[in-house]
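Before relying on records like the one below, remember that each one covers exactly one chain. Contacts with other chains, cofactors or solvent are not represented anywhere in the record.
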Amino acid sequence: MKTVALAILLVLGGGLSIFAQDKPSDNPKSVITKKALQDRLAGLEKGRDQTLADLQAYDGAIQECKYWIGKFEAANKESGKDESAKPKAAPEKKSDAPKKEDKPRGK
């Protein structure tokens, strides 16, 4: 989880280096100011917080799945059932429609 968060932060931080590489003479709006950096920092922190919340939600969902899998396995052990066995196929239904090889009875 730390690796994923670090990778995301590095990617987001890379945007700042691109932002800083613009020359002021190329575009007057690209001048780095304290306000621009504070805005960028606020956006990055908001994105980080959302990413961490998403990761925690994934961890919770994974934990819940493992819990229920454990419950199913415990119930199967108690009842002696083996859930890994393949279920039996449903019996084929016979159709009333004539087959191609059936010939209609003539007069």
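Residues 2-79 form one domain.
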